[in-house]
Amino acid sequence: MSENIANVNQDSFQEAVLDSQKPVLVDFWAPWCGPCRAVAPIVEELAKDYKGKIEFAKVNVDEAPFVASKFGVMSIPTIIVFRDGKPVQHAIGYQPKDQLKKLLDSALAK
Fold this sequence. Notes:
Blueprint: E1 5-8, H1 13-18, E2 24-29, H2 34-49, E3 55-60, H3 65-70, E4 78-83, E5 86-92, H4 97-109
Parallel strand pairs: 1-3, 2-3
Antiparallel strand pairs: 2-4, 4-5
């Protein structure tokens, strides 16, 4: 895991994501999920590319099922971008880097 990505659980989600002054990309994942492992290096690259503009977090759905359920995560990987404590963009399933960049750029433009 990159130092640019916070590992967030049910206890830290409010502070790390919902209370953040910056937009936050949250990667909902699980260790047994193949597509999640495929998207992880892309999220790490984006965390470096957008450092200082967007925060990045990962939520293991097995360890934080309440958080996943609260935001309607039914399949993984699911990426949700939060701004001002609210989900503003989302993507379900594996997404290439250019698609995720579009999500982030759109969240920054709002």
